[in-house]
Amino acid sequence: MKKIIFLCLALLMPGLSFSAQGGAVVPPKELMQTELLHDVVWHLYRWYLDERDADKLGGKDDVVFWVRELKPKLDAGDKSLFGEILIPDLDVDVMVKKADYKVPELNLTVKNDRFKIVNISRPCPAKMPDGYAAVSENYQVLKNYAHDKRVLARFPSEEITVRFQAAAVEAIRNELLGREKAGLENKFGSWDEVRKQPQTLLLAPLLEVANETWSFWETGKMLIKFSSDLDLENPAVWKKGNVAVKLYNIEQQTVVSLDEVPGSNAYMTRDQVGRVLFNCIVLGRKLPLDFAAADARQAKK
């Protein structure tokens, strides 16, 4: 049973400007719907949580979500909705966005039919701040929902899959050629050597609650993150170049704790790497990489 408590003031979030709210704060119903909250927990279960997080919920009847709508200053015509979902029992802060805007210079309309996760961080407040609505969901129901979907794997259409493959190849090509230019050695060989050998990409499944996923390039021991503010399964997003592709060298960019590299976003923890590899290797789809095609595309430019 949901217990909803409405409070009065909206907080300002660091780094963004929000309008003050007067009277009772009532987030959009969609931000408090069971479907969204369950999918947020499922995403965390798939990509972030471990046994230490599960221990925090042991013995609880309900999991509490603190929810509020965010009111950033938007460009004219931008009707996007923003929200924040705090889960104190897991010490997690989740930012979500329901996009609804146009990019005139690209002749592109960006509109999502649901809220999607745009950022996950820790910590979150230990006590509910002003301006939030508290929603309680049954812990056992949440647990069963995530558990039942723990190996569910959904992949994009073949048209979009080809886009993932091509983007991975271009990123790897640029990385290898960049290292060669800088005089850095690659254990797995130069671009000229690598491109002549069969290569494999392991693409992790997509979750509809977020516009991001990962892949693993076996030969180079590199993780590749694909992310966008837009729907990754929209062909126009790829044609317009609105997908960010970031490489992580597992050997060089893995640490036990991010406290080792304060202020840097160039590293991943060993736990994070392990979860990404599980999604790519165990649940992912194995795809061939056509490195020769990358050179052909560059020759046409």
What can you see in these coordinates?
- The chain is 29% helix and 25% strand.
- With 301 residues, the protein is of the alpha+beta class.
- The chain folds into two domains: 120 residues, no CATH class; 143 residues, no CATH class.
- The strands form four sheets. It has a five-stranded antiparallel β-sheet with strand order 6-3-2-1-7. Strands 11-10-9-8-14 form a five-stranded antiparallel β-sheet, sandwiched between helices. It has a two-stranded antiparallel ribbon with strand order 4-5.
- Helix 1 crosses helix 3.
- It is globular.
- The N terminus is likely disordered.
Question: How would you summarize this macromolecular structure in one to three sentences?
Answer:
The chain is an alpha+beta fold. The protein folds into 2 domains: 29-148, no CATH class; 158-300, no CATH class.
Task: Explain the layout of strands and helices.
Elements: H1 34-47, H2 51-57, E1 62-70, E2 81-87, E3 92-98, E4 100-103, E5 108-111, E6 116-121, E7 133-138, H3 139-148, H4 158-181, H5 191-194, E8 199-203, E9 212-217, E10 222-227, H6 235-239, E11 244-249, E12 254-255, E13 268-269, H7 270-282, E14 285-289, H8 291-300
Parallel strand pairs: 12-13
Antiparallel strand pairs: 1-2, 1-7, 2-3, 3-6, 4-5, 8-9, 8-14, 9-10, 10-11
